[in-house]
Amino acid sequence: MVKESVWSLTKKVIIVIIGAFLNAVAMNFFLIPANVYASGFQGVAQLLSNIFTSFTPVNVSTGILLLLLNIPVAILGWLKVGKSFTIFSFLSVLLTTFFLELIPVKALSEDIILNAVFGGVISAVGVGLTLKWGASTGGLDVIAMILSRMKDRPIGNYFLVMNGVIILLAGLIFGWEKALYTLVALYATTRVVDAIHTRHAKLTAMIITDKSEELKKAIHAKLVRGITVLPAKGAFSGQQREMLMIVITRYELYDLERIIKEVDPNAFTNIVETAGIFGFFRKE
């Protein structure tokens, strides 16, 4: 069990490293040379770096600004979300900053559409892999987890507002053409992340298990979510079991999968995309 846990942790670190590297490649080879902006905190850091360079004698790199923006978010995440998610998310930010400083900013193409599309796609592969393995690239992902733990709120609105502000400021300061190409990059990023991980912010897991009590305790120890227990009976075997139904955010999917695998590897789990919910979304 310990050996398996160490291997799982090692794989997670490797995935975070790969994700950070891909994010830095997307930024330094495609998005930054073309003045096309990324989404979330990366886009904010990129925009602030351009503003400093264009309007002040101070030059601050995108990587350093990304790190500075994520420090207060990491502190909040540590207090409100949990140590594991926050540590891996901040590790992703640190590695992204490292790779952004290490890899030279160099345009591989003069075609701005190619830069927008490839930058968005490569970045999305990094983000999608990181999310799939239970971490995040920091910034809005951590804020989304904090908000979902405190109160159920439409997280997508926050992503929309921040990306909208990035596009608006980029258009006002540096020209609307760059802002429009940023939309292309954001669309490519969103579609690829959805394909790799999931496009739904919330998911419903229905778990049929012989070890419902052990599984309930393990889930409650790790996730701040309520569980509904329903009686279940096998149509072929006639065996009585219980079905646990739980609604989670997409950031908690990796942890739930790992818990089920550790407690009851023989459990049957159906993950359903949840379009919307009414009522309380957290364990009181």
What are the defining features of this structure?
single chain; 284 residues; Alpha-Beta Plaits; 4-stranded antiparallel sheet; 10 helices; elongated
Topology, element by element:
Layout: H1 2-34, H2 40-55, H3 62-80, H4 83-102, H5 112-132, H6 140-150, H7 155-174, H8 176-196, E1 202-209, H9 212-222, E2 228-233, E3 240-249, H10 253-263, E4 268-274
Antiparallel strand pairs: 1-3, 1-4, 2-3
Explain what you see.
By secondary structure, the chain is an alpha+beta fold. It has two domains: 2-196, no CATH class; 202-274, Alpha-Beta Plaits. 64% of the residues lie in helices and 11% in strands. The protein has ten helices and four strands. It has helices at 2-34, 40-55, 62-80, 83-102, 112-132, 140-150, 155-174, 176-196, 212-222, 253-263, and strands spanning 202-209, 228-233, 240-249, 268-274. A four-stranded antiparallel sheet has the order 2-3-1-4, with helices on one face. A hairpin with a 6-residue loop joins strand 2 (228-233) and strand 3. Helix 5 packs parallel to helix 8. The protein is elongated. The two termini are 32 Å apart.
Query: So what's the overall shape?
Result: elongated
How far the N terminus sits from the C terminus, by CA atoms, comes to 32 Å
Q: How many E-type strands?
A: 4
Main beta sheet, described? 4 strands, antiparallel
Compact description:
The chain is an alpha+beta fold and 284 residues long. The protein folds into 2 domains: 2-196, no CATH class; 202-274, Alpha-Beta Plaits (2-Layer Sandwich), CATH 3.30.70.120.
